[in-house]
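[retry 2/3] DUF3040 domain-containing protein: previous attempt timed out, resubmitting with same input.
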Amino acid sequence: MLDERDRRALAAIEQELSRQDPVLAARMGGPDRPGPTVLALCASLYVSLPMVTLLFGWVAAVIVFDVFAVLLALVLVRRRRRRARP
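[retry 2/3] DUF3040 domain-containing protein: success.
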């Protein structure tokens, strides 16, 4: 934990940054910072696809892969739209 002097110094740095470059400050400090959604989707596909293929066959594997592709496209479109809005 930071002591009081360091917290004040950090707050002064943050205020100066937001005054000089508000776009960068908004990108760096916003609570809406994206999580590792793409990584989580890829990891879930990596784990689930072999099991689905073994248990239910290749048709189910194709369905799971298609669902993954749609979810990935939705995540990437949402990120691009969020980035395009100033």
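[retry 2/3] DUF3040 domain-containing protein: Helices lie at 4-20, 22-29, 37-56, 58-84.
[retry 2/3] clearing retry counter.
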